[in-house]
Amino acid sequence: MSTSLTVIILIIAGLTIAIAVARMRDLKGTERGSPPGKGYHVIDADYSSGAGGGGHQTQYKVPKDPQEYAKLFVPKETKK
Asked: What is the pTM of this model?
C-alpha cells in the first residue's frame, strides 16, 4: 500500500470519527422515553371511524418503574 493511499485512508477515518462525535453531541438531551420512577404514565388513545360517527376512546396506564413494566410481559401461569 502506498504512502499517499494510507494518508487518504487516515484522513477519511479521522473525518468520519469527527462527524460521529459531533452528531452525538447534537443529539445529547434529545433521548426518547422518560426517567424511571413511581406511579404511571397515562396514555390517551382515540379512534374515529370517519364522518359517519363511531369510534373508540380509551386510556392506558403504563408503569414508570421498568421492572414493573417488564412484569406485564410475563405470562401469569409462569412458574417462579
From this structure: 0.45
